[in-house]
Amino acid sequence: MALTPFSLNDLKNSMIEQIKGNLEMQNTVTNVITTNNNDWNIIAPKVAEVLLAPVIEHLNSRLTVVESKMNDLERYHRTWSLRFLGFQEERNEIIPNKITAFLNKNLNINLCEDQIENCHRVGKPVRGKGRPIIVRFYSRPLRQQILRATYLLKQNKSNVFIVEDLTRKTLELFHFVRASLPADKKRSVITRNGRVYRKNPDNTLTPITDFSCKDDANQTSAIYTSQLSHSSNSLHQQHSKNDYLVQHDNGGCDDT
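Above: the chain's sequence. Below: its structure in token form.
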């Protein structure tokens, strides 16, 4: 993260306010100076360590904001895309044909290949397993139409599942929350437009934005504080089909 003159000035002002308003810090610096007999070889590193705290706090605060904005931008970029799971992987397959034919037949959608901007499989090939297919459409309304029609897949007991293309952070959060809930509460956690929500009994939605979210007493007393057991660096590539079924379950992605 580059520090511009403006952000450097912010950092300086933050340090000044921290020092002026933190009596404990003032006393610590004073004590370091008075107890080391003006030996600045000792004093300098100790004072620097004390003063470093507000710098780290300021940078962490800025980093949190930047990461949040980046995730929002990535989430928005993905709202044109869907992930398809369950398609058998074939040599020399023509994926646009496969997707178009499937949607037209199973979801009663009049789709042509020209409406697909790009599509490809993701992740490393695994023998005997079909990798997920990511499909980016030119039209967001078309994407929403497809999501709304996915209930037909459950009715027809299809082995193919269609889910939102979530950011790594959102997918981590989704599985984290679902794993933290009892079985009868898991289906209340859904995604909509790349965000995670809890669906309340009155059908209103409560956003879940971070790992510290706590369900209210009427829903669950679980506190979401543990870590995911799997690596977050390759979630989208390495999640099995069953992992995504937890998300979707032909109802987990609610875009109605």
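Strands lie at 81-85, 116-121, 133-137, 161-164, 189-192, 195-199, 205-208.
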